[in-house]
Amino acid sequence: MAFLSATLDRVKPSPTIAVTTKAAELKAAGRDIIGLGAGEPDFDTPDNIKAAAVAAIAAGKTKYTAVDGIPELKQAICAKFKRDNALDYTPAQVTVGTGGKQVLYNAFMATLNAGDEVIIPAPYWVSYPDMVLLAGGTPVTIEATLAADFKITADQLEAAITPATKWFLFNSPSNPTGAGYSWDELKALTDVLLRHPHVWVMTDDMYEHLAYGNFKFCTPAQVEPRLYDRTLTVNGVSKAYAMTGWRIGYAAGPEMLIKAMRKVQSQSTSNPCSVSQYAAVEALNGTQDFLAPNNALFERRRDLVVDMLNQAPGVVCPRPEGAFYVYPSIAGCIGKTSAAGVLIDNDETFAAALLEETGVAVVFGAAFGLSPNFRVSYATSDAALEEACKRIVGFCKSLN
């Protein structure tokens, strides 16, 4: 009798965590490493949010809370959805988890049966397909190519839907591409979903506030209110509020679904950290004045990285609408050999050789379901980004 669960055979460890861990190990060994793998802002949590956490500790708010969130946070989430997205929810329609990942996982665990399909546009966040597999479902990917600006079309979505489709998982702005869907582009997708009432919508809005230029964020239930009763709108405080380590994600949707997700959470982790919840209340209710300057900082970094990477032979790097990632194609590098004699036959080999020969850590595209590409997180200092891009350009110039 096997000791480990056969379920584990269906999934793999997170490649982004593996890259970050490898970079840290090399740096600890004395190598000059620039890590562009981690998807978290490099600046600190705002002072007002930290102060709220300190106040919660001083007030003794360190006990168990309700399984899926304190009332104050659920009220703040309802206010946020109304203020930012014109969506009306009650606290009974809200769940709070230990990061957005747990919220997504709870939803899959609460709804998927063997044979149920989840449509996922690729490139995708590395965890999406594996969470579906862990919950017993079947991921079905739709390829969003560079030529299509990493966005799927209504016709592609229509063609992917079957009687077994249970969820359409949507992420805009996207991790890993930064691509953002306009109102009209999203309306074309929601029009398809209206024709298939058995398909639910799970939308990952974690990068909502990281939108640049003329791009305006929108979310499916906002664009098409008739989908409200079968949409789970997921968000969190990790990215916009620089609170990745605080581990607070949340979602709102039909009360029946929220109750089912609460049941899953009650038998797994129970409540998220109490102190983090009080900090998240301040994040959502407090000043939002830092969002605009932070966005301006990220937009400048985006432009720096895009402009520099497009100087690399064999690389094509589009300019994304949001998030803090770029997803350049290295199609022009495939088949060439590095200065150290490594044949670049795929994007995983490219990323490995880049790390070994230049000390720049990126995540290879196959991890996100679309090759040949790699992901750069520009959520780090201008100086580090400029040096890393110089090394990448030099590496590509050395290929022959």
Automatic annotation (TrEMBL):
<dbReference type="Pfam" id="PF00155">
    <property type="entry name" value="Aminotran_1_2"/>
</dbReference>
<keyword id="KW-0808">Transferase</keyword>
<dbReference type="InterPro" id="IPR050596">
    <property type="entry name" value="AspAT/PAT-like"/>
</dbReference>
<dbReference type="GO" id="GO:0030170">
    <property type="term" value="F:pyridoxal phosphate binding"/>
</dbReference>
<dbReference type="InterPro" id="IPR015424">
    <property type="entry name" value="PyrdxlP-dep_Trfase"/>
</dbReference>
<dbReference type="InterPro" id="IPR015422">
    <property type="entry name" value="PyrdxlP-dep_Trfase_small"/>
</dbReference>
<keyword id="KW-0663">Pyridoxal phosphate</keyword>
<feature type="domain" description="Aminotransferase class I/classII large">
    <location>
        <begin position="32"/>
        <end position="392"/>
    </location>
</feature>
<comment type="similarity">
    <text>Belongs to the class-I pyridoxal-phosphate-dependent aminotransferase family.</text>
</comment>
<dbReference type="GO" id="GO:0006520">
    <property type="term" value="P:amino acid metabolic process"/>
</dbReference>
<comment type="subunit">
    <text>Homodimer.</text>
</comment>
<dbReference type="InterPro" id="IPR004838">
    <property type="entry name" value="NHTrfase_class1_PyrdxlP-BS"/>
</dbReference>
<keyword id="KW-0032">Aminotransferase</keyword>
<dbReference type="GO" id="GO:0004069">
    <property type="term" value="F:L-aspartate:2-oxoglutarate aminotransferase activity"/>
</dbReference>
<dbReference type="InterPro" id="IPR015421">
    <property type="entry name" value="PyrdxlP-dep_Trfase_major"/>
</dbReference>
<dbReference type="InterPro" id="IPR004839">
    <property type="entry name" value="Aminotransferase_I/II_large"/>
</dbReference>
<protein>
    <recommendedName>
        <fullName>Aminotransferase</fullName>
        <ecNumber>2.6.1.-</ecNumber>
    </recommendedName>
</protein>
